């Protein structure tokens, strides 16, 4: 019944039932259009019905982020209606060319403005069915009103198609010419996987932007991987792991086809049995992100995150935040359509409830900007960085809390900082990482991406989570105060440079150095004294040029890995050896003679017992000093319990040395001759 959704037909008689401060999460201004004593004003059940709608909007405020006031209207369905409930957005803007729009609720929530007078969305409930209301246990043969209200309101926030069975949009133009569609429609595909082909022209620089370019048979082809109907958006595909099958029965069902997922467990399935309580699945929340909700783009100028918010006054014109999705007409300006491709201004994030928030920062040119978070602590799941500027941009101010909602549940998107560009970013804000794996979530924050720009984290990183580094760009951890996060740091790609003030820990817990990953010390004493250092294919480097010293936890050799020493007097001291060695420990940059202390960079061990050469013989056999024969040995030092790892002449020598100290001198002499004498001498 999509055409009904935009026709203002119902008179408004009702009251405001709920209001929150303007600058808080989305304010839902709900009007009930029923005559007194009926429907939502039924003397017995009216209050419960209104409370159920209220509960649905309160739930949506845990999913959607916004600061605006939304005006919506409910009423009873007409007698004889064959459906449970309906709801849709209003305020679509019909214009020449084409566009993808989310409608009035989206625009009002994000901008506190609307293109026209009237409500932002409206719908009805069919009270000829039995309903289970908020606070009541599900009863047989009754539908759960809160679940159904959430379903309908999710349609209202833009989870719906505006195409008909032939591919025409709201303006009923000939398929193939630009028309007015939902943002949801831009993610419609025929087929899945490598067979997927887009149903719409989504190139905003094309005069045919927002025209149906597919085959309309897709709308009745079910979910055949070649011919069927799917939704493919970046965030939902990430969460769902594949193209999302949409409801596309044959024959076409007007009002149900296309606008629903074909998943009986999903809230946005086209029908619901009685006695069933549902909430949005993770991938359905991600679909809302795909259509634009909770995604904020910085305008790449210096300013404050709260610009545009002054006390209770909201002025979207002054905001630094933008949206590339769903808003085409605002304050007499056009956006997000052919010829007007600039993203529309939106109000700043609220970011206090859901963490399913994406913040995008770009930039270009030769000067950087500083974006100051004056909101305070904000929740988010994704920080996308994509600058081509030759100067670094800075994000500073209040804390960034990654990947955990205000109720402790995990974000549906994996918490990440993603470097897409060549420009550097300095993130001076404190960062909080949380381990939410007990709730099915995440171990902590991942920093990754295909860009090349350096990322510097100069604030304090705290929390129960860990840090994972992927990608070839350099990630620098700097600042004056120690990081205290307790999860594991895993480096699987590129360089993690530890550059806190000497003596302030850059990492909090264990460290895993996987293949392709390097940890580079840029100052003394960056690693915690107790965290296990698991060498799993990566490189632990003491510096560029002059090396730096550190005391670390136990060393665990999980596969062939490298300790790269450099010039100058410095040392790594491991507190113990953990696990059974696997692969080789390659020590590069060591200088000195076999059985002698190193002359520049040194590797020490403590907490390895009284007789480490015997106890850790298999570890010593796995040691490879570059430029020396295989094997290593622990030398005692002047400090009790502290041993230095140095090279030996040959692996067989180690066992002999342990058995008889006298052999040590023999082997040393023999090895030196090996360096100096002709080969013929050795064969004698
Ligand atoms: Zn529906």
Spell out the blueprint of helices and strands:
Elements: E1 27-32, H1 46-60, E2 69-76, E3 85-89, E4 99-101, H2 104-111, E5 121-125, E6 131-132, E7 143-144, H3 145-156, E8 180-182, E9 188-190, E10 197-198, E11 229-231, H4 234-240, E12 244-245, H5 282-290, E13 295-298, E14 303-304, E15 309-310, E16 313-314, E17 321-323, E18 329-330, E19 333-334, E20 344-346, E21 358-363, E22 370-373, E23 378-380, E24 382-387, E25 393-397, E26 400-402, E27 416-419, E28 425-427, E29 431-433, E30 444-448, E31 455-457, E32 461-462, E33 466-469, E34 474-479, E35 489-491, E36 494-500, E37 511-514, E38 517-521, E39 533-536, E40 539-541, E41 550-552, E42 555-559, E43 561-564, E44 570-575, E45 577-578, E46 585-588, E47 601-606, H6 612-615, H7 617-621, E48 623-625, E49 632-636, E50 642-647, H8 651-659, H9 662-676, H10 679-683
Parallel strand pairs: 1-2, 2-5, 4-8, 6-7, 13-21, 14-22, 21-24, 22-25, 23-26, 24-27, 25-28, 26-29, 27-30, 28-31, 29-32, 30-33, 31-34, 33-35, 34-36, 35-37, 36-38, 37-39, 38-40, 39-42, 40-43, 41-44, 42-45, 43-46, 44-47, 46-48
Antiparallel strand pairs: 3-5, 9-10, 9-11, 11-12, 13-17, 15-16, 17-20, 18-19, 47-50, 49-50
Bound molecules: zinc ion.
Zinc ion (ZN) binds next to α3.
